[in-house]
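Hi everyone,

Forwarding the result from last night's run.
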Amino acid sequence: MMQQYLRIKARHPDMLMFYRMGDFYELFFDDAEKAAKLLDITLTRRGVSAGEPIKMAGVPYHSAEQYLAKLVRLGESVVICEQTGDPATAKGPVERQVTRIITPGTLTDAALLEEKRDCTLLAISVREPALGMAWLNLAAGQFRVLETRVGDLTSELERLKPAEILLPEPLALPELEATAAREKLCLKRLPSWHFDEDAAVRNLSRQFETHDLSGFGCEDLSISLGAASALLDYVRLTQGMNIAHIQALKVERDDAFVRMDAATRRNLEISETILGDASHTLLSLLDTCATNMGSRMLRHWLHHPLRDRATIQDRLEAVSFLMNETDPAPYLVIRQHFKHMADIERIAARIALRSARPRDLSGLRDSLQQLQQATAAIAALTDLAGHATRHINALRQAMEPDSALAALLEKSLMEEPSVVLRAGGVLADGYDAELDELRAMQNNCGEFLLELEMREKARTGIASLKVEYNRLHGFYIEVTHAHSDKIPGDYRRRQTLKNAERYITPELKTFEEKALSAQERALQREKFLFDALLDRLAPFVTHVQQIAQGIAELDVLATFAERALALGYVMPFFTGEAMIEIEAGRHPVVEKQMEDFVANDLRLGAGENGTRQMLIITGPNMGGKSTYMRQVALIALLAHCGSFVPANSARIGPLDRIFTRIGASDDLAGGRSTFMMEMTEAANILHNAGEQSLVLMDEVGRGTSTFDGLALAFAIARHLLEKNRSYTLFATHYFELTRLAEEFPQIANVHLRAIEHKHSIVFLHAVNEGPASQSYGLQVAALAGVPESAIRTARKYLVKLEQGNVKRQPQGDLFAGAALPESTQREHPALTRLQAIAPDELSPRQALEQLYEMKKMMQKDSQPKE
C-alpha cells in the first residue's frame, strides 16, 4: 500500500494528499506533520519506512469538507485520492486514483466557497512593458482577459482580489512577490511552455469549439491569450476533466471602467476598511441583496464603476421604476420572489463539473418554479411602463426558464431528496421502472417481516418473539432466554445477548439475500441514473448561467431602489460638461454612524463665477476634511455604478479615474517609510491623472520637515493645476498654500468651520468659502488627552512664534558641526553701526558716507582668512 501511496504522491510533491482508507482520509510523512499543525489533529506513527517510523494523521471522510475549507483558507492545495476499486474483490492494495485537486482558486463546492465573494484564479504573463492577464471564476463560468502595463499590476490585484495566481517559472516580479507575501496570496509557477502564445490560440479555440478567436475580439491580446491558455491547462488538471461550461472569453479594456489604483480602493473603504474589516464599508451599507448572486454582483459593480453612459442610464431608470409608489413597490415584489432562490450560478458550474449533489438539483428545480412566478409578476409590473423599464424587460426575458429543463427536474427528483446520493431516496418514483421494482422489493420487507413474525409466534408459542433487522447483523429472530426451550430445530444462532438470543432460519436467510441484494442494486441503479441525469442537464448549463446573471442584476437594482428609499438618495444627472456639482452631499457610511451628519455642497468645473478646478481645503484636524473629500469620490463612484447617491442633487461630467492620497503608514516589508509611501502615491497621481480625473490630496508633505513639506505641497498643487488639469480637492495645514488662489483664478479656498470656546473647540463640519483662520491644533490635542501642562507650554511657545520672538531654523544638516547658541555668537560690526544710527538726524551726505563705511566693513569681513 505504501508503494502505491508513494507512487501517487510523487506526482504531486507540493500538495497535501488526502489518501482514502475506508472511512478516513489519511496523510503520511511530511504531509501528516504539516496537516497536524494546520488542522490541530493528532499526529501518530505506524509502521516503518526506510528504518524510520511512518508519521500519520487522518480526518473522517464524512467531515472532510470542514478540514478542506480550513486548509484552503490557509492557502494550501489538496489532492484527493479515492478508492476506485472494490475491497472485496481486490487482490493486494485497493486501486486508488486522484479524482480531484482542490486549490484556493478552483473552488466550486458550496462548503468551501464564501457565499458573497467570488473565487478568482488569475494567470499572469509579461512582455515588458506589457502585462497580460487572464482570470477565471470557475464557480460562475466567467473567463476574462486584459492587457495593460506592468506598472498597473498592484492596482489590478487590488481590484480582482485573486485567491490564486499562476505565472511562468522564469518570470520574476518582485512587486508581485512582495504583495503576495503581505496579502498572503497563493502563487503557483508553471512551466513556461504552458504560456506559449502560438499554442494558446489553438488551445482556446478547441475549448470554445470555434475555428479561431476572432469572434471574441481578442486577436491583438497575444500576451493575455498565453496566460488564458495556461490557466485552462491548470484548471483541467485540477478538475481531472474538460471544463465544458467555459464557453466564452470576455475582453476587458482599460477605458471601460472608472479606474482606481490600489491606494484609492483602500482609502475609499469600498469593501474593506483600511484595517481590513468588512464592516463599516460602502459594500456593507448597501448589501441588502436577497440572493448571494446579487451580493457578489454588487461587490463587482462597486469595484468596476462604468464609463458607458448608456448602460449607467439604463440602470438608473430601472432603479427609478423599481421605486414606484405602488402597493407593493416593484422592488419589494422582486425581493419577495428572490429571497428563497438557491445559488443557481454555482449549481450550474457543479453540474458541468459533475460534482452537483442531490440538493443542488432540487434547489435548481425549486428556484425555477419560483422564477416562473417572479417573471410573471415582473411582466405585470412593466406592461404599462414602456421605455422606462426597457432594461428590466430585457432582464425578465433573459430569466425566462426553459420549460424542458423545468419539466425534467420536476419529473426526476423527490420532493425532498437525500443530502447525499449514497443514502438513496433521490430520484422520484415513476422516473425509472427498474428502480421502482427494486424499491418495491425493499418496501415489501416490512410486510414480509410482519407476516413472518406472526407465523413464528404461532408456530413456537412465543408471544414475545420479534423479527427485526440491523446493519451489522442483518435480519434475525430474537427470543429471550426464558423461552429457549421452545426454539425449533431449524433456528440457527446468529448472536447472543445478555437477555436474549438472535436466530436465523433458512427462509429468513433466503429473504435476506434477496432484500439486501435489492437494496444494493437500487443504490447502484440510482447512482447510474443520477449520473445520466447530470448528462441530460449539461446542455442547459449555459442557459442556467444566463438566468443567474439576470437574477443577480435585477437583485442589485432592487437593492439600489431599497437603499435609495431607506437612506434618502437621489438620481444623479450626467452631463457632457467638465464639472462635478453636488448639493448637500453626504458620506454614505459616516452618516449612518452619526446622529446629525452635516451635508455639504461642492462645485468643480465651469460656473457663473468662472472655472473652479481645485479646492484648497483648510481647517482643524477632526474637522471633517477627509470625510468631505471621500464623500465626493464615493458619490461619483456610486453614480457610475448606476446607483442613486446621498445628496440633494448631483451633476457629474466625464470621469475616467479617481485618485486618492489620504493617510499613510510604513510599508516595513517593502522597506518604505511613511513619507516614501506618500511620495510614491503622489508620483503615481502626477504621472497618470488627466483632465477627466478626480484627485483627492490630503496633507501632502507632512512626513518631512516643514519647509520641505511646504515646498513639495506647493509644487504638487501647481503641477496638478497646470499639467494634469484634474478635478482636485487639496486638503492642507500649510496656510501658505491658500495664497495660490490669489495667483490662479481656477483655485478656490474653502474651510471646515470650527468654534473655539474656553480653550476648547466645537467642530461644525460645515464647508465655507475662504481659508480657515487657524488650525486649532492645541484644542484638538487637548481633546485627544494631551496633559494640560503640555498644552500650557505649547500655548506659550505658540505666542512667541506668532510674535516672531523665536527664530525659525532651516532644516539641519546631520553632517555639519553644531551651531553656537544665539547668545554666544558675535554680532557683525556693520550691524552694530547700523543699529546706532539715527536716520532722521543725518543729512543726505552723512547718510551716504555711513553707507560706504558699512560696505567697507562687509567687504573686509568677507575676505578669506589666512
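The longest strand covers residues 747-757.

Cheers,
N.
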